[in-house]
Amino acid sequence: MTYDASEQDILIGVFTKMLRGATVDGGKKRKAGTKPPWWRDKSHEAAIWSHMSKWKHGEIHDKDSNAHPLVHLAWRALAIAYQEEHGKIDPAQEIRRDNGQRVFRVQPEDSQSDGHVEAKSNSSISDFGRLANAVQRGLFD
To answer: What are the extents of the domains in the chain?
Structure first.
């Protein structure tokens, strides 16, 4: 059997659809002001364990989103990975310097003053642009 590289595109498409399903409910809660932005949210790790427990106890559909609890777990894990790689920085606020270094304008989490945080990333600008676009459309939990 020969490996078909299009499998990667299919996999990303399927996973994107699954993650989008887990994202809708959180987006509604953020819009209502009952949840912090995903990139600043401190509850991701606790939510991972909650979703794992729900799955271990036989739940296969979230009561709010109808998504599988392990999809919610994966979403939260990705959110933690983003925060650890970029900081609790709004990806929609990315700007570029002349030298190509990424700089994010943010309101520091525990401060009243404006500031900026520099974050370096190995991801491409197009990947980051797609992420920022997805955030703006509310596609994250």
So the answer is: 6-136
Please name the residue that has the structure tokens 């299919």: 10
Distance CA 117, CA 126 (A): 21
Question: What is the separation of C-alpha 117 from the centre of its chain, rounded to a whole number of angstroms?
Answer: 19
Residue 98, helix vs strand vs coil: coil
Q: Answer yes or no: are the C-beta atoms of 141 and 26 closer than 8 Å.
A: yes
Partnered with residue 96 across adjacent β-strands are 102
Residue 91 DSSP code: G
pTM: predicted TM-score of the whole model, two decimal places: 0.65
**pLDDT surpassing 70 at residue 1:** yes
- pLDDT per residue as tens digits for the range 97-130: 445 566 555 444 444 433 334 444 444 444 555 5
